[in-house]
Design brief:
This protein is of the alpha+beta class. The protein folds into 2 domains: 41 residues, no CATH class; 153 residues, Nucleoside Triphosphate Pyrophosphohydrolase (Alpha-Beta Complex). Strands 5, 6, 7, 8, 9, 10 and 11 form a 7-stranded mixed beta sheet that branches. Helix 4 crosses helix 5. The protein is globular and about 60 Å long. The two termini are 40 Å apart.
Amino acid sequence: MTVPRATLPEAPKVELETIRETRIGEGGFLAVRRVELVVVQDGARSPEFTYDIIDRHALDACVMAAHHVDEGRVWVWLRSSVRPPVGLRSQEVGSSAVLWELPAGLIEPGENARAAAARELAEELGFDVPESALAELGPSGFPAPGCIGEVHHFFHVEIDPRTRTEPDGDGSPVEAGARVIAIPLEEALAACRRGELRDEKTELALRRLAEVLS
């Protein structure tokens, strides 16, 4: 039964019991943990079921909104990103293999989120900023909790466009030839509404940035 509420209630208490686990695809960028699980809730146990979970050596990621003000307008910096999963289904979803995105990257083991954000800004945009300049942009969250436990950490930072150098990238084919642009924040949000800027973590960060700067 659905009960109307004025506030978000506490989530139901559930325990997951792992019966067995195997790993598939070790050695690549991603691996799959195939687990046999039982859900335990209020003393009741579910039937055993199989669930596949995506895993990788560095699980969490940071997302950065770099911005500056010019003639009274806020500009944000985007980067073109080659996304093979998108390109391989381009006829179905009506998109090329390239998306415009805010810079983002994995947090390496032993690295904190703010340090990773500063490193990725230099690698992907060419801005060298101290960790202390990065401010949190709302809480962290799970982008695809149905298949991966990855957490996204959001940051924003005001930069000086005159300090930008050509970024090195990570040397992979998907980052070779990437373009870096700056566009007004309101134009980026309009592109989200038109379905032209389709990366969801980018749209979320842009909307949060607009709230913070308003």
